[in-house]
Design a protein that fits this description.
Two copies of one chain form a homodimer.
Chain A (H helix, E strand, L loop, with lengths): L1 E3 L2 H13 L4 E6 L5 H13 L2 E6 L19 H10 L4 E3 L3 H4 L6 E5 L7 H4 L3 H16 L3 E5 L3 H13 L5 E5 L19 H22 L5 H13 L4 E9 L14 E9 L2 E9 L5
Parallel strand pairs in A: 1-4, 2-3, 2-6, 3-4, 6-7
Antiparallel strand pairs in A: 8-9, 9-10
Protein backbone atom coordinates (compact mmCIF):
# COMPACT_ATOMS: atom_id res chain seq x y z
CA UNK A 1 0.00 0.00 0.00
CA UNK A 2 1.12 3.54 -0.74
CA UNK A 3 0.18 6.41 1.54
CA UNK A 4 -0.07 9.53 -0.61
CA UNK A 5 -0.87 13.12 0.24
CA UNK A 6 -1.26 14.83 -3.12
CA UNK A 7 -3.82 14.81 -5.91
CA UNK A 8 -1.06 14.37 -8.51
CA UNK A 9 0.13 11.18 -6.84
CA UNK A 10 -3.37 9.71 -6.87
CA UNK A 11 -3.82 10.64 -10.53
CA UNK A 12 -0.55 9.04 -11.58
CA UNK A 13 -1.24 5.83 -9.62
CA UNK A 14 -4.74 5.64 -11.10
CA UNK A 15 -3.36 6.16 -14.61
CA UNK A 16 -1.08 3.14 -14.19
CA UNK A 17 -3.88 1.00 -12.75
CA UNK A 18 -6.16 1.98 -15.65
CA UNK A 19 -3.49 1.08 -18.18
CA UNK A 20 -3.31 -2.34 -16.57
CA UNK A 21 -7.05 -2.64 -17.17
CA UNK A 22 -7.95 -2.54 -13.50
CA UNK A 23 -11.33 -1.52 -12.13
CA UNK A 24 -11.01 1.36 -9.68
CA UNK A 25 -12.87 1.43 -6.35
CA UNK A 26 -13.00 4.42 -4.00
CA UNK A 27 -13.95 4.38 -0.33
CA UNK A 28 -14.23 7.99 0.86
CA UNK A 29 -13.89 8.30 4.65
CA UNK A 30 -13.10 10.84 7.35
CA UNK A 31 -10.73 8.34 8.96
CA UNK A 32 -11.01 6.92 12.50
CA UNK A 33 -11.72 3.71 10.64
CA UNK A 34 -13.95 1.14 12.26
CA UNK A 35 -15.56 -2.12 11.20
CA UNK A 36 -18.16 -0.21 9.15
CA UNK A 37 -15.44 1.32 7.00
CA UNK A 38 -13.61 -1.99 6.78
CA UNK A 39 -16.77 -3.60 5.44
CA UNK A 40 -16.85 -0.97 2.68
CA UNK A 41 -13.18 -1.62 1.95
CA UNK A 42 -13.67 -5.39 1.81
CA UNK A 43 -16.56 -4.93 -0.60
CA UNK A 44 -14.37 -2.69 -2.79
CA UNK A 45 -11.55 -5.25 -2.60
CA UNK A 46 -13.86 -8.01 -3.86
CA UNK A 47 -15.16 -5.93 -6.74
CA UNK A 48 -12.14 -3.89 -7.90
CA UNK A 49 -8.57 -4.47 -9.03
CA UNK A 50 -7.43 -1.21 -7.48
CA UNK A 51 -8.75 0.16 -4.20
CA UNK A 52 -8.32 3.75 -3.01
CA UNK A 53 -9.33 4.82 0.49
CA UNK A 54 -9.43 8.54 1.18
CA UNK A 55 -9.09 9.87 4.71
CA UNK A 56 -10.04 13.51 4.88
CA UNK A 57 -11.86 15.28 7.70
CA UNK A 58 -13.68 17.63 5.35
CA UNK A 59 -14.08 21.04 7.01
CA UNK A 60 -16.78 22.25 4.58
CA UNK A 61 -19.29 19.70 5.85
CA UNK A 62 -19.03 20.86 9.46
CA UNK A 63 -21.07 23.78 10.75
CA UNK A 64 -19.33 26.53 12.76
CA UNK A 65 -20.56 25.09 16.08
CA UNK A 66 -19.88 21.45 15.18
CA UNK A 67 -17.14 19.01 16.16
CA UNK A 68 -14.53 19.62 13.42
CA UNK A 69 -11.72 20.32 15.90
CA UNK A 70 -12.37 17.33 18.15
CA UNK A 71 -13.31 14.86 15.37
CA UNK A 72 -11.07 11.81 15.97
CA UNK A 73 -7.92 11.61 13.83
CA UNK A 74 -5.78 8.47 13.78
CA UNK A 75 -3.96 8.29 10.45
CA UNK A 76 -1.26 5.88 11.58
CA UNK A 77 -3.79 3.39 12.90
CA UNK A 78 -5.99 3.93 9.81
CA UNK A 79 -3.01 3.21 7.54
CA UNK A 80 -2.30 -0.03 9.40
CA UNK A 81 -5.91 -1.16 8.97
CA UNK A 82 -5.94 -0.25 5.28
CA UNK A 83 -2.67 -2.08 4.69
CA UNK A 84 -4.11 -5.20 6.33
CA UNK A 85 -7.29 -4.91 4.27
CA UNK A 86 -5.30 -4.92 1.04
CA UNK A 87 -5.88 -1.28 0.07
CA UNK A 88 -3.70 -0.06 -2.81
CA UNK A 89 -3.66 3.65 -2.04
CA UNK A 90 -4.49 5.57 1.09
CA UNK A 91 -5.04 9.19 0.09
CA UNK A 92 -4.73 11.58 3.04
CA UNK A 93 -4.67 15.11 1.65
CA UNK A 94 -4.22 18.27 3.69
CA UNK A 95 -6.99 20.87 3.81
CA UNK A 96 -4.81 23.11 1.60
CA UNK A 97 -4.47 20.35 -0.99
CA UNK A 98 -8.24 19.98 -1.24
CA UNK A 99 -9.20 23.63 -0.76
CA UNK A 100 -6.39 25.83 -2.02
CA UNK A 101 -6.52 29.63 -1.58
CA UNK A 102 -9.37 31.09 -3.60
CA UNK A 103 -11.39 27.86 -3.79
CA UNK A 104 -15.04 28.77 -4.34
CA UNK A 105 -16.94 26.20 -6.41
CA UNK A 106 -19.76 24.16 -4.91
CA UNK A 107 -21.89 21.23 -5.91
CA UNK A 108 -25.34 21.36 -4.37
CA UNK A 109 -28.22 18.91 -4.47
CA UNK A 110 -31.47 20.70 -3.69
CA UNK A 111 -34.71 19.18 -2.42
CA UNK A 112 -33.71 16.07 -0.50
CA UNK A 113 -30.92 17.99 1.25
CA UNK A 114 -33.38 20.42 2.83
CA UNK A 115 -34.90 17.96 5.31
CA UNK A 116 -33.62 15.86 8.25
CA UNK A 117 -29.81 16.22 8.46
CA UNK A 118 -29.92 19.11 6.01
CA UNK A 119 -32.34 20.99 8.24
CA UNK A 120 -30.39 20.28 11.42
CA UNK A 121 -27.00 20.90 9.81
CA UNK A 122 -27.29 23.75 7.26
CA UNK A 123 -24.58 23.57 4.62
CA UNK A 124 -23.58 20.03 5.63
CA UNK A 125 -24.61 18.32 2.40
CA UNK A 126 -23.15 21.04 0.20
CA UNK A 127 -19.80 20.23 1.83
CA UNK A 128 -20.36 16.49 1.38
CA UNK A 129 -21.34 16.69 -2.30
CA UNK A 130 -18.55 19.13 -3.11
CA UNK A 131 -15.84 17.00 -1.52
CA UNK A 132 -17.23 13.81 -3.07
CA UNK A 133 -17.35 15.44 -6.52
CA UNK A 134 -13.69 16.39 -6.03
CA UNK A 135 -12.71 12.91 -4.82
CA UNK A 136 -14.57 11.32 -7.74
CA UNK A 137 -12.80 13.61 -10.22
CA UNK A 138 -9.43 12.93 -8.62
CA UNK A 139 -9.79 9.12 -8.46
CA UNK A 140 -12.12 8.54 -11.42
CA UNK A 141 -13.43 5.35 -9.83
CA UNK A 142 -15.77 2.84 -11.43
CA UNK A 143 -17.36 2.28 -8.02
CA UNK A 144 -17.56 4.33 -4.85
CA UNK A 145 -18.74 2.78 -1.58
CA UNK A 146 -21.03 4.38 1.00
CA UNK A 147 -22.59 2.99 4.15
CA UNK A 148 -26.32 3.00 4.80
CA UNK A 149 -25.81 4.38 8.32
CA UNK A 150 -25.63 7.79 6.67
CA UNK A 151 -28.76 7.03 4.69
CA UNK A 152 -29.59 10.55 3.58
CA UNK A 153 -25.97 11.15 2.53
CA UNK A 154 -26.13 7.99 0.42
CA UNK A 155 -29.31 9.20 -1.33
CA UNK A 156 -27.85 12.69 -1.85
CA UNK A 157 -24.68 11.26 -3.42
CA UNK A 158 -26.71 8.93 -5.62
CA UNK A 159 -28.79 11.88 -6.78
CA UNK A 160 -25.70 13.98 -7.49
CA UNK A 161 -24.19 11.17 -9.56
CA UNK A 162 -27.42 10.68 -11.49
CA UNK A 163 -28.18 14.38 -12.05
CA UNK A 164 -24.65 15.30 -13.10
CA UNK A 165 -24.10 12.09 -15.14
CA UNK A 166 -20.96 11.24 -13.18
CA UNK A 167 -19.36 8.17 -14.75
CA UNK A 168 -19.38 5.88 -11.72
CA UNK A 169 -21.66 3.66 -9.73
CA UNK A 170 -22.46 4.17 -6.05
CA UNK A 171 -22.47 0.95 -4.06
CA UNK A 172 -24.50 1.01 -0.87
CA UNK A 173 -23.42 -1.19 2.02
CA UNK A 174 -25.47 -2.23 5.06
CA UNK A 175 -24.90 -0.54 8.39
CA UNK A 176 -22.50 -2.46 10.63
CA UNK A 177 -23.49 -2.66 14.29
CA UNK A 178 -21.74 -3.46 17.54
CA UNK A 179 -22.89 -6.77 19.07
CA UNK A 180 -25.30 -4.83 21.30
CA UNK A 181 -26.87 -3.06 18.30
CA UNK A 182 -25.20 0.37 18.37
CA UNK A 183 -24.52 1.50 14.81
CA UNK A 184 -20.78 1.89 14.25
CA UNK A 185 -19.68 5.51 14.04
CA UNK A 186 -16.42 7.32 14.60
CA UNK A 187 -18.40 9.62 16.90
CA UNK A 188 -19.16 6.73 19.29
CA UNK A 189 -15.70 7.36 20.73
CA UNK A 190 -17.03 10.61 22.24
CA UNK A 191 -19.41 8.68 24.51
CA UNK A 192 -18.76 7.99 28.20
CA UNK A 193 -19.60 4.50 29.45
CA UNK A 194 -22.98 5.68 30.74
CA UNK A 195 -23.74 7.60 27.58
CA UNK A 196 -22.85 4.61 25.45
CA UNK A 197 -25.26 2.48 27.45
CA UNK A 198 -28.02 5.09 27.10
CA UNK A 199 -27.34 5.43 23.34
CA UNK A 200 -28.45 1.83 22.85
CA UNK A 201 -32.03 3.03 23.08
CA UNK A 202 -31.70 4.38 19.53
CA UNK A 203 -31.00 1.08 17.80
CA UNK A 204 -33.30 -0.74 20.22
CA UNK A 205 -36.20 1.55 19.34
CA UNK A 206 -35.53 0.99 15.62
CA UNK A 207 -35.62 -2.78 16.16
CA UNK A 208 -38.92 -2.37 18.01
CA UNK A 209 -40.23 -0.36 15.04
CA UNK A 210 -39.21 -3.14 12.69
CA UNK A 211 -40.94 -5.67 14.90
CA UNK A 212 -44.14 -3.59 14.88
CA UNK A 213 -43.92 -3.34 11.09
CA UNK A 214 -43.42 -7.08 10.77
CA UNK A 215 -46.44 -7.56 13.02
CA UNK A 216 -48.52 -5.52 10.59
CA UNK A 217 -48.22 -1.88 11.73
CA UNK A 218 -48.48 0.37 8.66
CA UNK A 219 -49.31 3.71 10.28
CA UNK A 220 -46.22 5.91 10.05
CA UNK A 221 -47.28 8.20 12.88
CA UNK A 222 -47.69 5.27 15.26
CA UNK A 223 -44.27 3.91 14.29
CA UNK A 224 -42.78 7.34 14.92
CA UNK A 225 -44.47 7.62 18.33
CA UNK A 226 -43.36 4.15 19.30
CA UNK A 227 -39.74 5.18 18.74
CA UNK A 228 -40.08 8.60 20.37
CA UNK A 229 -41.72 7.12 23.45
CA UNK A 230 -38.98 4.54 23.87
CA UNK A 231 -36.19 7.09 23.48
CA UNK A 232 -37.83 9.54 25.90
CA UNK A 233 -37.46 6.98 28.67
CA UNK A 234 -33.69 7.66 28.60
CA UNK A 235 -33.26 11.00 30.34
CA UNK A 236 -29.83 11.76 28.83
CA UNK A 237 -30.89 11.11 25.22
CA UNK A 238 -32.54 14.03 23.42
CA UNK A 239 -34.30 13.50 20.13
CA UNK A 240 -33.43 15.81 17.23
CA UNK A 241 -35.82 14.05 14.86
CA UNK A 242 -37.63 10.75 14.31
CA UNK A 243 -38.96 10.49 10.76
CA UNK A 244 -40.71 7.88 8.65
CA UNK A 245 -40.09 8.73 5.00
CA UNK A 246 -40.15 7.46 1.45
CA UNK A 247 -36.81 5.66 0.79
CA UNK A 248 -36.05 7.73 -2.34
CA UNK A 249 -37.70 11.14 -2.00
CA UNK A 250 -37.20 11.26 1.79
CA UNK A 251 -40.62 12.87 2.01
CA UNK A 252 -42.74 11.98 5.06
CA UNK A 253 -45.32 9.28 4.45
CA UNK A 254 -48.53 8.54 6.30
CA UNK A 255 -48.99 4.89 5.42
CA UNK A 256 -46.19 2.41 4.83
CA UNK A 257 -47.66 0.87 1.67
CA UNK A 258 -44.54 -0.65 0.24
CA UNK A 259 -41.41 0.51 2.01
CA UNK A 260 -40.12 3.26 4.25
CA UNK A 261 -37.01 4.38 6.02
CA UNK A 262 -37.16 5.33 9.65
CA UNK A 263 -34.47 7.80 10.61
CA UNK A 264 -33.42 8.98 14.03
CA UNK A 265 -31.03 11.72 15.11
CA UNK A 266 -30.43 12.27 18.80
CA UNK A 267 -28.07 13.97 21.19
CA UNK A 268 -26.41 11.99 23.96
CA UNK A 269 -24.73 14.72 26.00
CA UNK A 270 -22.59 16.64 23.52
CA UNK A 271 -22.59 13.84 20.97
CA UNK A 272 -25.03 13.74 18.08
CA UNK A 273 -25.69 10.28 16.63
CA UNK A 274 -27.83 9.11 13.73
CA UNK A 275 -29.24 5.74 12.83
CA UNK A 276 -31.93 4.33 10.57
CA UNK A 277 -33.73 1.22 9.50
CA UNK A 278 -35.38 0.27 6.21
CA UNK A 279 -38.86 -1.21 6.47
CA UNK A 280 -39.74 -3.32 3.44
CA UNK A 281 -40.79 -6.79 2.40
CA UNK A 282 -37.33 -8.05 3.40
CA UNK A 283 -38.24 -7.46 7.06
CA UNK A 284 -39.06 -10.82 8.59
CA UNK B 1 -20.10 11.60 -38.44
CA UNK B 2 -22.84 10.24 -36.19
CA UNK B 3 -25.65 12.46 -34.98
CA UNK B 4 -26.73 11.14 -31.57
CA UNK B 5 -29.43 12.25 -29.18
CA UNK B 6 -28.81 10.23 -26.03
CA UNK B 7 -26.22 10.20 -23.28
CA UNK B 8 -25.85 6.43 -23.60
CA UNK B 9 -24.90 6.71 -27.27
CA UNK B 10 -22.20 9.28 -26.47
CA UNK B 11 -20.84 7.09 -23.68
CA UNK B 12 -20.64 4.01 -25.85
CA UNK B 13 -18.95 5.88 -28.73
CA UNK B 14 -16.47 7.44 -26.31
CA UNK B 15 -15.70 4.04 -24.80
CA UNK B 16 -14.74 2.68 -28.22
CA UNK B 17 -12.62 5.75 -29.03
CA UNK B 18 -10.82 5.44 -25.69
CA UNK B 19 -10.12 1.77 -26.29
CA UNK B 20 -8.51 2.77 -29.58
CA UNK B 21 -6.27 5.10 -27.56
CA UNK B 22 -7.78 8.25 -29.00
CA UNK B 23 -7.68 11.66 -27.33
CA UNK B 24 -11.19 13.06 -26.83
CA UNK B 25 -12.05 16.69 -27.61
CA UNK B 26 -15.37 18.35 -26.75
CA UNK B 27 -16.75 21.55 -28.23
CA UNK B 28 -19.87 22.52 -26.26
CA UNK B 29 -22.17 24.84 -28.22
CA UNK B 30 -25.74 26.06 -28.33
CA UNK B 31 -25.82 25.48 -32.09
CA UNK B 32 -26.45 28.10 -34.79
CA UNK B 33 -22.83 27.39 -35.62
CA UNK B 34 -20.73 30.16 -37.12
CA UNK B 35 -17.07 30.65 -37.97
CA UNK B 36 -16.27 31.14 -34.27
CA UNK B 37 -17.54 27.65 -33.45
CA UNK B 38 -15.84 26.20 -36.51
CA UNK B 39 -12.54 27.63 -35.31
CA UNK B 40 -13.04 25.77 -32.01
CA UNK B 41 -13.87 22.59 -33.91
CA UNK B 42 -10.81 22.89 -36.15
CA UNK B 43 -8.62 23.37 -33.10
CA UNK B 44 -10.15 20.25 -31.53
CA UNK B 45 -9.67 18.35 -34.80
CA UNK B 46 -5.93 19.23 -34.85
CA UNK B 47 -5.43 18.18 -31.24
CA UNK B 48 -7.71 15.15 -30.77
CA UNK B 49 -8.35 11.80 -32.37
CA UNK B 50 -12.05 11.96 -31.54
CA UNK B 51 -14.10 15.16 -31.68
CA UNK B 52 -17.51 15.62 -30.08
CA UNK B 53 -19.61 18.71 -30.70
CA UNK B 54 -22.63 19.22 -28.49
CA UNK B 55 -25.56 21.34 -29.62
CA UNK B 56 -27.87 22.13 -26.74
CA UNK B 57 -29.76 25.35 -26.11
CA UNK B 58 -29.47 25.06 -22.36
CA UNK B 59 -32.60 26.44 -20.70
CA UNK B 60 -31.03 26.75 -17.24
CA UNK B 61 -28.65 29.48 -18.37
CA UNK B 62 -31.44 31.74 -19.64
CA UNK B 63 -33.29 34.08 -17.29
CA UNK B 64 -37.11 34.14 -17.37
CA UNK B 65 -37.16 37.34 -19.47
CA UNK B 66 -34.37 36.24 -21.82
CA UNK B 67 -34.32 34.95 -25.39
CA UNK B 68 -34.58 31.16 -24.85
CA UNK B 69 -37.63 30.80 -27.11
CA UNK B 70 -36.28 32.81 -30.01
CA UNK B 71 -32.66 31.64 -29.74
CA UNK B 72 -31.73 30.44 -33.27
CA UNK B 73 -31.97 26.69 -33.87
CA UNK B 74 -30.60 25.11 -37.06
CA UNK B 75 -29.62 21.52 -36.32
CA UNK B 76 -29.65 20.35 -39.95
CA UNK B 77 -27.35 23.13 -41.04
CA UNK B 78 -25.19 22.61 -37.92
CA UNK B 79 -24.88 18.90 -38.73
CA UNK B 80 -23.78 19.69 -42.28
CA UNK B 81 -21.08 22.07 -40.99
CA UNK B 82 -19.87 19.55 -38.39
CA UNK B 83 -19.72 16.78 -40.97
CA UNK B 84 -17.61 19.00 -43.26
CA UNK B 85 -15.33 19.92 -40.36
CA UNK B 86 -14.61 16.25 -39.65
CA UNK B 87 -16.51 15.97 -36.37
CA UNK B 88 -16.95 12.39 -35.11
CA UNK B 89 -20.08 12.84 -33.01
CA UNK B 90 -22.68 15.56 -32.95
CA UNK B 91 -24.57 15.26 -29.67
CA UNK B 92 -27.95 17.01 -29.75
CA UNK B 93 -29.87 15.97 -26.65
CA UNK B 94 -33.41 17.00 -25.81
CA UNK B 95 -34.12 19.06 -22.71
CA UNK B 96 -35.63 15.92 -21.11
CA UNK B 97 -32.46 13.95 -21.80
CA UNK B 98 -30.34 16.55 -20.00
CA UNK B 99 -32.82 17.54 -17.30
CA UNK B 100 -35.09 14.59 -16.53
CA UNK B 101 -38.02 14.93 -14.12
CA UNK B 102 -36.76 15.65 -10.61
CA UNK B 103 -33.38 17.02 -11.70
CA UNK B 104 -32.09 19.32 -8.94
CA UNK B 105 -28.29 19.34 -8.63
CA UNK B 106 -26.27 22.43 -9.39
CA UNK B 107 -22.63 23.36 -9.79
CA UNK B 108 -21.93 26.92 -8.78
CA UNK B 109 -18.77 28.99 -8.94
CA UNK B 110 -18.99 31.89 -6.51
CA UNK B 111 -17.03 35.15 -6.57
CA UNK B 112 -16.18 35.76 -10.22
CA UNK B 113 -19.75 34.89 -11.24
CA UNK B 114 -21.19 37.72 -9.18
CA UNK B 115 -19.95 40.57 -11.40
CA UNK B 116 -20.49 41.65 -15.03
CA UNK B 117 -22.60 39.00 -16.82
CA UNK B 118 -23.44 37.39 -13.50
CA UNK B 119 -24.82 40.66 -12.17
CA UNK B 120 -26.82 41.40 -15.33
CA UNK B 121 -27.99 37.80 -15.75
CA UNK B 122 -28.68 36.25 -12.31
CA UNK B 123 -28.44 32.46 -12.41
CA UNK B 124 -26.82 32.46 -15.86
CA UNK B 125 -23.47 31.04 -14.81
CA UNK B 126 -25.02 28.43 -12.53
CA UNK B 127 -26.78 27.11 -15.63
CA UNK B 128 -23.55 27.25 -17.65
CA UNK B 129 -21.40 25.46 -15.07
CA UNK B 130 -24.04 22.84 -14.39
CA UNK B 131 -24.53 21.94 -18.04
CA UNK B 132 -20.79 21.96 -18.70
CA UNK B 133 -20.17 19.67 -15.71
CA UNK B 134 -22.78 17.31 -17.15
CA UNK B 135 -21.30 17.46 -20.66
CA UNK B 136 -17.81 16.85 -19.26
CA UNK B 137 -19.05 13.84 -17.28
CA UNK B 138 -20.90 12.47 -20.28
CA UNK B 139 -18.04 12.89 -22.78
CA UNK B 140 -15.05 12.59 -20.43
CA UNK B 141 -12.92 14.68 -22.80
CA UNK B 142 -9.20 15.32 -22.49
CA UNK B 143 -9.78 18.82 -23.87
CA UNK B 144 -12.80 21.11 -24.05
CA UNK B 145 -12.77 24.22 -26.24
CA UNK B 146 -14.20 27.63 -25.37
CA UNK B 147 -14.04 30.94 -27.21
CA UNK B 148 -12.67 34.11 -25.66
CA UNK B 149 -15.69 36.13 -26.85
CA UNK B 150 -17.44 34.83 -23.72
CA UNK B 151 -14.46 35.78 -21.62
CA UNK B 152 -16.09 35.57 -18.21
CA UNK B 153 -17.66 32.21 -19.08
CA UNK B 154 -14.21 30.92 -20.02
CA UNK B 155 -12.76 32.05 -16.68
CA UNK B 156 -15.70 30.59 -14.76
CA UNK B 157 -15.33 27.21 -16.49
CA UNK B 158 -11.57 27.22 -15.90
CA UNK B 159 -12.20 27.91 -12.22
CA UNK B 160 -14.80 25.14 -11.95
CA UNK B 161 -12.39 22.65 -13.54
CA UNK B 162 -9.57 23.71 -11.23
CA UNK B 163 -11.64 23.85 -8.03
CA UNK B 164 -13.41 20.52 -8.62
CA UNK B 165 -10.29 18.77 -10.02
CA UNK B 166 -12.09 17.83 -13.20
CA UNK B 167 -9.78 15.62 -15.28
CA UNK B 168 -9.64 17.72 -18.44
CA UNK B 169 -7.96 20.80 -19.86
CA UNK B 170 -9.83 23.89 -21.05
CA UNK B 171 -8.47 25.29 -24.30
CA UNK B 172 -9.20 28.94 -24.92
CA UNK B 173 -9.54 30.13 -28.49
CA UNK B 174 -9.37 33.73 -29.79
CA UNK B 175 -12.56 35.56 -30.69
CA UNK B 176 -13.38 35.33 -34.39
CA UNK B 177 -14.63 38.56 -35.97
CA UNK B 178 -16.46 39.53 -39.13
CA UNK B 179 -14.29 41.43 -41.63
CA UNK B 180 -15.73 44.70 -40.26
CA UNK B 181 -14.80 43.79 -36.67
CA UNK B 182 -18.11 42.55 -35.21
CA UNK B 183 -17.45 39.62 -32.87
CA UNK B 184 -19.17 36.51 -34.22
CA UNK B 185 -22.23 35.50 -32.19
CA UNK B 186 -25.33 33.48 -32.90
CA UNK B 187 -27.26 36.47 -31.55
CA UNK B 188 -26.00 38.69 -34.41
CA UNK B 189 -28.77 37.13 -36.49
CA UNK B 190 -31.30 39.09 -34.40
CA UNK B 191 -29.95 42.42 -35.72
CA UNK B 192 -31.62 44.46 -38.47
CA UNK B 193 -29.30 45.95 -41.10
CA UNK B 194 -29.27 49.30 -39.28
CA UNK B 195 -28.71 47.66 -35.89
CA UNK B 196 -25.86 45.60 -37.26
CA UNK B 197 -24.22 48.77 -38.57
CA UNK B 198 -24.70 50.51 -35.21
CA UNK B 199 -23.35 47.46 -33.32
CA UNK B 200 -19.96 47.96 -34.95
CA UNK B 201 -19.30 50.73 -32.46
CA UNK B 202 -18.66 48.06 -29.82
CA UNK B 203 -15.69 46.40 -31.50
CA UNK B 204 -14.52 49.77 -32.88
CA UNK B 205 -14.43 51.24 -29.38
CA UNK B 206 -12.45 48.24 -28.12
CA UNK B 207 -9.92 48.70 -30.93
CA UNK B 208 -9.63 52.38 -29.96
CA UNK B 209 -9.02 51.31 -26.37
CA UNK B 210 -6.28 48.97 -27.53
CA UNK B 211 -4.73 51.79 -29.56
CA UNK B 212 -4.79 54.09 -26.52
CA UNK B 213 -3.15 51.34 -24.42
CA UNK B 214 -0.47 50.82 -27.08
CA UNK B 215 0.14 54.57 -27.07
CA UNK B 216 0.81 54.41 -23.34
CA UNK B 217 -2.56 54.92 -21.62
CA UNK B 218 -2.55 53.01 -18.32
CA UNK B 219 -5.44 54.66 -16.48
CA UNK B 220 -8.35 52.21 -16.44
CA UNK B 221 -10.98 54.89 -15.83
CA UNK B 222 -9.84 56.85 -18.89
CA UNK B 223 -9.93 53.68 -21.02
CA UNK B 224 -13.43 52.98 -19.77
CA UNK B 225 -14.57 56.54 -20.53
CA UNK B 226 -13.03 56.45 -23.98
CA UNK B 227 -15.18 53.40 -24.81
CA UNK B 228 -18.35 54.70 -23.16
CA UNK B 229 -18.07 58.02 -24.97
CA UNK B 230 -17.63 56.34 -28.34
CA UNK B 231 -20.58 53.99 -27.80
CA UNK B 232 -22.85 56.80 -26.58
CA UNK B 233 -22.55 58.45 -30.00
CA UNK B 234 -24.73 55.64 -31.39
CA UNK B 235 -28.27 56.47 -30.25
CA UNK B 236 -29.62 52.93 -30.67
CA UNK B 237 -26.83 51.26 -28.65
CA UNK B 238 -27.31 51.22 -24.88
CA UNK B 239 -24.45 50.26 -22.61
CA UNK B 240 -25.07 47.62 -19.93
CA UNK B 241 -21.48 47.78 -18.67
CA UNK B 242 -17.98 48.76 -19.71
CA UNK B 243 -15.37 47.35 -17.34
CA UNK B 244 -11.60 47.21 -17.11
CA UNK B 245 -10.67 44.26 -14.92
CA UNK B 246 -7.91 41.91 -13.89
CA UNK B 247 -7.79 39.03 -16.41
CA UNK B 248 -8.07 36.32 -13.74
CA UNK B 249 -9.98 37.71 -10.75
CA UNK B 250 -12.23 39.93 -12.96
CA UNK B 251 -11.95 42.57 -10.24
CA UNK B 252 -11.86 46.20 -11.40
CA UNK B 253 -8.39 47.69 -11.61
CA UNK B 254 -7.31 51.32 -11.46
CA UNK B 255 -3.99 51.11 -13.26
CA UNK B 256 -3.15 48.67 -16.04
CA UNK B 257 0.24 47.63 -14.68
CA UNK B 258 0.64 44.41 -16.58
CA UNK B 259 -2.53 43.29 -18.28
CA UNK B 260 -6.27 43.84 -18.23
CA UNK B 261 -9.41 42.76 -19.97
CA UNK B 262 -11.86 45.33 -21.19
CA UNK B 263 -15.40 43.98 -21.36
CA UNK B 264 -18.46 45.53 -22.91
CA UNK B 265 -22.11 44.48 -22.80
CA UNK B 266 -24.65 46.54 -24.70
CA UNK B 267 -28.18 46.42 -25.99
CA UNK B 268 -28.90 47.13 -29.64
CA UNK B 269 -32.67 47.26 -29.74
CA UNK B 270 -33.81 43.96 -28.18
CA UNK B 271 -30.47 42.26 -28.72
CA UNK B 272 -27.83 42.07 -26.03
CA UNK B 273 -24.26 41.62 -27.28
CA UNK B 274 -20.96 41.23 -25.44
CA UNK B 275 -17.39 41.69 -26.58
CA UNK B 276 -13.98 42.14 -24.98
CA UNK B 277 -10.34 42.75 -25.63
CA UNK B 278 -7.24 41.74 -23.70
CA UNK B 279 -4.69 44.48 -23.09
CA UNK B 280 -1.22 43.11 -22.47
CA UNK B 281 2.33 43.19 -23.73
CA UNK B 282 1.20 41.35 -26.87
CA UNK B 283 -0.69 44.51 -27.96
CA UNK B 284 1.40 46.17 -30.63
Amino acid sequence: MRLVYTIDEVRSEVRVARELGKTIGLVPTMGALHEGHLTLIRRAREQCGFVIVSVFVNPTQFGPSEDLARYPRSLEEDARKCEQAGVDILFAPSVEEMYPEGFDTWVEVKGITEVLEGKSRPGHFRGVTTVCAKLFNISQPNYAYFGMKDYQQLKVIQKMVRDLNMPLEIVQVETVREPDGLAMSSRNSYLSAEERQAALVISRSLMEARKAFTDGERNAKRVQELISNLIKVEPCVHIDYVAVVDPESLRPIQTIDRSAVVLVAAWIGNTRLIDNIVLDSACK
